Amino acid sequence: MKILFIGTDDIHTPKWIRYFKQRGYKCLFHCIEPSRRSILQELHYLKSECEAFKPEIVHTHYAGRNGLIGTLLNFHPHVITVHGSEVLLSNWWKKRMVRWILKRADMITTDSRIIERKLWGWGVSAFNVEYIRFGVDTNFWKPEPPDPEIPNLNIKARYPTIISTRNLEPVYDIETLLRAFQIVQDNIPNVRLNIIGEGSRDHDLKFLSQQLGLKYVKFFGRCSPAVVLAALRHAWVYVSTALSDAGLASSTAEAMACELPCVVTNVAENRKWVEGVFSPGYYEGLARTVSAFISNANYRETIGRLARQRIVKYNNYHVEMRKMETLYTDILRRRKTNGKGS
Q: Are 110 and 132 in contact (CB under 8 A)?
């Protein structure tokens, strides 16, 4: 099977491609570069690639700009994976465009029941929507005793440490995390906060950290998966202050797979996965929950073990990709049965 993937160099699309390449499928990745090429330029390059590669399936990740380019290619079968923000956070005209795109797809996948119901409400056929989680590679994201120190990050294992791996964008509300940490550091000596991620609010958040007098906060920017894994193994508690999620965020799921107790906002489906939830923006509640985990090792370890068990059972990358493999086969068989080509 030959699959042309359309997407960006995010955390989801390359991981999806890697699985199918390892399974022996021929895969071509057209990486969208909005800062370098217009939609028409992208479409021109994409048509040339499609003619040369001759895929059997085109699969687009993210139904906004990427989905528009994939739809204008006019290739079938066309699969679109919804990431969430294009449905939940778009303004009215973009939502109309996304609805138009999704109604023209042959199959849509989502990792959120909330998104699934939203699409039904938009008039997208339930027969075209499949529930496929992005999944976590639990063979990679797993707990192991941390090294005494990560030299390139100057992280040391002996201190109680909070970690966030969400990006520094307004939707992830890192400001709430900083304000909560101000309370925690006043009550727990030597507590650390490690923030891994990049984004438009980098300068503002560093300035706020200084204003709040936070002693042990480090911003590490974007890090490789191996470095993120090492940092998670050093952490005691993971926090996500996101104002919106679609399903369970991949960063949260990775932390859970590493047996970290997680404290996350009570949005989307988070309450189904995580015990430690708080209302968005409520930094006092966040500080209390984080402090409780840091102060009680038995509680912290018990919740961490339960977290990994949930991921292994319900959000396993290899299981979810096998489901997707079956769906690819089914959609090709249906089109051959109906006598439809590309």
A: yes
